[in-house]
Amino acid sequence: NRDVAVYALGIGACGRDAVDEDELKYVYHENGQKSIQVLPTFSALFSVGIMMKGLDIPGLDYDPRLLLHGQQYIELYQPFPSSASLVNKSSLAGLHDKGKAAIAEIETKTYEKGSGKLLCMGRSTAFLRGAGGFSKSSQPYSYSTYPKDQIGAIEIPKSLPSAVFQDLTQPSQALLYRLSGDYNPLHSDPNIATVAGFSRPILHGLCTLGFAVRAVIKSICRGDANAVKNILGRFLLHVYPGETLITEMWLQGSRVFYQTKVKERNRAVLAGYVDLRHIPSAL
Predict the structure, then answer these.
(1) Strands 142-144 and 101-112, sheet pairing
(2) CA dihedral (9, 53, 171, 43) positive or negative
(3) Strand 244-252 vs strand 68-76: parallel, antiparallel, or unpaired?
(4) 153 neighbors 166 (Cβ within 8 angstroms)
(5) Whose CA is closest to 83, among 50, 35, 122?
(6) DSSP annotation string for 103-133
(7) Beta strands 267-276; 228-235: pairing state
(8) Annotated active-site positions, please?
(9) What is the per-residue pLDDT across 201-251, written as a single tens digit (0 to 9) for each?
(10) Which of 135, 164, 224, 270 has the fewest Cβ atoms within 10 Å of its own Cβ atom?
(11) Cα–Cα distance between 3 and 136 in angstroms, integer?
(12) Alpha-carbon gap, residue 83 to 112, rounded angstroms
């Protein structure tokens, strides 16, 4: 339950208002920490350790410090308990040779220890710079264990959004978020950031995803995190800690398309959708 609370703070919960009635439940409960609620994007953490330690694939060499997260997909089957022991089982779901880089997809299924309940499935897509060019056939190597149409296309509507939410990341946001287990120095070490081509450490892509989905929960779900069924996020551009995030949302049936922009640079940094189990009656 401590991990859950630290994660919620890391993605900005109660960042503007310490007693926010929609978000205080993610970090505090009058009946104790074991009664707090878990944000659905918490599950995105479960494959981070595997990517950071390095994928044990013969012939595939890369520097984990320079890994870039390309996409994150999440399916939620059961509400998360506030406190539990979990078992994560990961497998290689895809591997693609892109010449100067490789794309690896790690699928992680998470079970509650003891009951054996399958809580969620996540698929992390990582862009591995310098790891491509390992296939020698005329066709670049490409491997996948799931149907190509399993993840829906992201088509941001041209109409006015159903809702818009603005949030400010803190200059120390990446240093707080990394306490949830993603210790990639790209997000904390200025020298590593320079080697990777950035002027300073950047925010974790999964942190930006957490901000965006939290905006959907607050604006569309009226604070009901359990309304979230599936999540897809595609990372388009980096975010620097301290920048302002503006998330635009379009409700179409039970799917919310969203796009997150950095206000200071007027650039889209994230796009995706959130599928809902039900539409809040207030809408």
Answers:
(1) unpaired
(2) negative
(3) unpaired
(4) no
(5) 35
(6) EEEEEEEEEETTT--EEEEEEEEEEEET---
(7) antiparallel
(8) 182, 187, 202, 205
(9) 999 999 999 999 999 999 999 999 999 999 999 999 999 999 999 999 999
(10) 164
(11) 44
(12) 10
